[in-house]
Amino acid sequence: MQKKIDPTRRSFVIAAAGVTTALTVAGATSGCQADSGADRQLRFATLAAAEDELARLAQAGELASSAVWTWARTLAHCAQSIEFSMSGYPQSKSELFQRSVGAAALGVFAWRGRMTHDLAEPIPGAPSLEAVADPAPALERLRAAILAFRAWSGPLRPHFAYGPLDKKEYELAHAMHLANHLSAFRAKS
Fold this sequence. Notes:
The protein has helices at residues 7-34, 47-59, 71-87, 95-112, 135-151, 167-182, and strands at residues 63-65, 185-187. With 189 residues, it is mostly helical. Helix 2 packs parallel to helix 6 and helix 3 runs antiparallel to helix 6. The chain is globular, with a radius of gyration of 18 Å. The relative contact order is 0.23. InterPro entries: DUF1569, TAT_signal.
């Protein structure tokens, strides 16, 4: 006779495995990126802090970069992420992933005050950014996305990996996302 597994226990075991995986991935990613001298390891808790750095970099004229993507493509990618928080992401991870691995990863990032992720990974299902070349429209798009997010009073859409977030949680996620990407750029001396 087979013993039935309690569904609550099963969910707990799956979630615990996801949390362990997220902590391992976040820790490994953090360790790899922390050694790079090109990563400035910026930390933003608000979009206002990110905007200050955006303005500084925009005024710099010429930028040095350790990023795979161009400055313009990076800006457009960050704008997409903020836009999708209001309109909906084109593709999402499973609800189980969002509640376990995704939520745990965001928790680790928030605890550390810094997100780390693959800076050349597009948002799943998002339109291609290959043709983005001019940074001026990309910067304006990002600034417009930030303004729209601030003014947004409607329901926010679940993040493709982290799941449902309230406005404060989303602002932190967006700020950390921007910090991670902007860390790869600096004003040329």
